[in-house]
């Protein structure tokens, strides 16, 4: 019996140490780390939305397995995804929606409203992505503003979703207000 207990401790201790090293925040925040999503095989949405850069086929499988309803792709049609993303998404049982946001001028309240309408069509979580999540963050900041969030909180939301280089553009849009 003592050997059995010793063996259990020998096996359980390293597993407990490994569990402490797992950062579930990387797969359950608004903007996720796609490498971690694939490595851990899990992902969780924040208020029904997950933001990310360009996913690969393995990441899309994790999203499908996690019950995501759709993938909204903000990349332009000419941007290379490395594979037939629409076919893969649909083969995995999710909806594929292309909402091309090309250039800083396309990060505006009109497109944020379009994104809001699209997100409202799905009862299950939705992945929204571009190449790096910068465009996603910008549109989600403007969407937050459309939904009554003050400018500071909208900017914080956008940054949490991946907005980086588009921050000055979004600040300008927020200063101008929705039309």
Structure description:
- The chain is an alpha/beta fold.
- It has one domain (23-176): Protein-Tyrosine Phosphatase, Chain A (Alpha-Beta Complex), CATH 3.90.190.10.
- Helices cover 51% and strands 9% of the residues.
- The chain has 9 helices and 4 strands.
- It has helices at 2-21, 25-28, 34-40, 57-65, 85-91, 109-120, 134-146, 151-160, 167-176; strands spanning 49-52, 70-73, 95-98, 126-129.
- Strands 1-4-2-3 form a 4-stranded parallel sheet, with helices on both faces.
- β2 (70-73), α5 and β3 (95-98) form a beta-alpha-beta unit.
- α6 (109-120) crosses α7 and α8 (151-160) runs antiparallel to α9.
- The longest helix is centred in the N-terminal third of the chain and has 20 residues, at 2-21.
Keywords:
9% strand; alpha/beta; Protein-Tyrosine Phosphatase, Chain A; globular; four-stranded parallel β-sheet; 179 residues; 9 helices
Concise description?
The chain has 179 residues and is of the alpha/beta class. 51% of the residues lie in helices and 9% in strands.
Shape: globular
| Secondary structural class | alpha/beta
Distance between the termini: 75 Å
Distinct helical segment count: 9
Look up the CATH topology.
Protein-Tyrosine Phosphatase, Chain A
Largest sheet: 4 strands, parallel
Radius of gyration: 19 Å
Q: Going across the biggest sheet, name each strand in turn.
A: 1-4-2-3
Following the backbone from N to C, one meets helices and strands in this order, namely: HHHEHEHEHEHHH
CATH superfamily: Protein tyrosine phosphatase superfamily
Average residue-wise pLDDT: 89
Helical residue percent band: 40-55%
Query: Which consecutive residue ranges, at least 5 long each, have pLDDT under 50?
Result: 1-20
Count the domains: 1
Number of strands: 4
Fraction in beta strands: 5-15%
By CATH, the architecture is named: Alpha-Beta Complex
